[in-house]
Automatic annotation (TrEMBL):
Residues 350-407 form the Purple acid phosphatase C-terminal domain. CDD domains: MPP_PAPs. This is Purple acid phosphatase. Belongs to the metallophosphoesterase superfamily. Purple acid phosphatase family. Residues 145-335 form the Calcineurin-like phosphoesterase domain. Its EC number is 3.1.3.2. It comes from the Eukaryota. GO terms for molecular function: acid phosphatase activity; metal ion binding. Its cofactor is Zn(2+); Fe cation. The keyword Glycoprotein applies.
Length: 443
């Protein structure tokens, strides 16, 4: 009965959200409609690990997370540098949760390390089941990020993940909307199984979107029950008191994960945490600063207009004064890259804003942009895809957006970036404001 309901649920979603095809203006590419939702079933034993994924913890540790159907499995990870030879092990913690009539499996979280940089480790979860492996990020630049938002679990999701896997990278960062479970909890399990081949091999660092909230009045008034249980991030290490906003550092890059769906005004815990977090950054040691959030602060798509404006008014000045280099946004199911912006004006010392909510969601693409285009918007396209950000050295990075085609991906937008910390124009103290309205072609 459960399988039948899930199949009907997926079919209805696909039919109800089917949009019209739209032909691209710049080439012969035909914009594709959303594809069907995929529900991935559990095909291992109850004691075997499933939904395995890893995340960074501090400078040299990794958190391994997985689920077992059996409640009697231990939260143990064995690991080593050779396949089948585990000379180290660590124990962790476990949790589970209920959501109406759904009860999760046993959710395990184990932190392992210290680990060496740029090293492949082999590991096994719970003392049984398949062997997995991952590669740790480098300790120094260069560093390769994959950026993908609004991922979901459709055939387009699988296409995106295949393209991501085809070229090596160090860390994946995701600005919200993971599973699109929307209170239908088995879809969280299905999502974990879909991403396991990728998220078990490289660290995935995520922040929440609106589809993670899952509030139900009176019964589940605070939301994020499944998200917090399944995807704990290293918030405590950054001084945060909430899994919904945090930061981490890797190879000369400070990454700030903001929460669009938790209080962010000047009196909020998130605002005070962000102030303190930005003040700690040493740009001589950490030349790059990147932020992620879900509801866009800048957006010329007709979808979700103004939904991030209140947060922008509250927090934009903090990011500007701290010389944040890039801000990645989700929510809008399209791709868009802005010039450097501050307070709705081009500013050579503001962040570059990039909307990348095009991972493969079930709702389809946001096809309509404002016309005429804003001069602040340099490239925009409603297609599924992902981005790659290569921190080449202390002064320069290379960004490229990869559009999905059926069997391959095409690089449609790319640009070289200079770090604001190395810019002569923007050399200033963190608390000093810049008033120059001038712009540059070089980003």
């Amino acid at each position: 009965m459960r399988k039948l309901c899930l199949c009907l649920f997926s079919l209805l979603l696909t039919i109800s959200l089917f949009p019209l095809l739209l032909k691209a203006k710049d080439d012969d590419f035909v914009r594709q409609p959303p594809r069907r939702v995929i529900f991935t079933h559990h095909d291992r034993s109850d004691s075997d690990p499933q939904q395995v994924h890893i995340s960074l913890v501090g400078k040299d540790h990794m958190k391994v997370s997985w689920v077992t159907d059996s409640k009697h499995c231990s939260s143990l990870v064995e690991y080593g540098k050779e396949s089948g030879k585990y000379n180290a092990k660590a124990n962790g913690e476990h949790t589970s949760y209920k959501y109406f009539f759904y009860t999760s499996g046993k959710i395990h979280h184990v932190t392992i390390g210290p680990l060496e940089p740029s090293t492949t480790y082999f590991y096994r979860c719970g003392g049984s089941g398949p062997e997995f492996s991952f590669k740790t990020p480098p300790s120094t630049l260069p560093l390769d990020f994959v950026v993908v938002g609004d991922l979901g679990q459709t055939e387009w999701t699988n296409s995106t993940l295949d393209h991501i896997q085809s070229i090596d990278y160090d860390v994946l960062i995701l600005p919200g909307d993971l599973s699109y479970a929307d209170t239908h909890q088995p879809l969280w399990d299905s999502f974990g199984r879909i991403v396991e081949p990728y998220a078990s091999r490289r660290p995935w660092m995520v922040t929440e979107g609106n589809h993670e909230v899952e509030i139900f009045p009176i019964i589940y008034p605070t939301g994020f029950k499944a998200y917090n249980a399944r995807w704990p991030m290293p918030y405590q290490e950054s001084g945060s008191t909430s899994n919904l906003y945090y930061s981490f550092e890797v190879a000369g890059t400070h990454v700030i994960m903001l929460g669009s769906y938790v209080e962010f005004d000047a009196d909020s815990d998130q605002y005070k945490w962000l102030q303190a977090d930005l003040a700690k950054i040493d740009r001589k040691k950490t030349p790059w600063v990147v932020a992620l959030l879900h509801a866009p602060w800048y957006n010329t798509n007709t979808a979700h207009q103004g939904e991030g404006e209140t947060m922008r008014l509250a927090m934009e000045e903090l990011l500007y004064n701290a010389q944040v280099d890039l801000v990645f946004q989700g929510h809008v199911h399209a791709y868009e890259r802005f010039t450097r912006v501050y307070n709705n004006k081009a500013d050579p010392c503001g962040p570059i804003y990039i909307t990348i909510g095009d991972g493969g969601n079930r709702e389809g693409l946001a096809l309509s942009f404002e016309d005429p285009a804003s001069p602040l918007s340099l490239y925009r396209e409603p297609s599924f895809g992902h981005g790659r950000l290569k921190m080449v050295n202390e002064t320069h990075a290379f960004w490229g957006w990869h559009r999905n085609n059926d069997s391959n991906f095409v690089v449609k937008d790319q640009v070289w970036l200079q770090s604001l910390s190395s810019s002569k124009t923007c050399s200033k103290s963190v608390d000093q404001k810049i008033t120059s309205p001038s712009t540059k072609d070089e980003l």
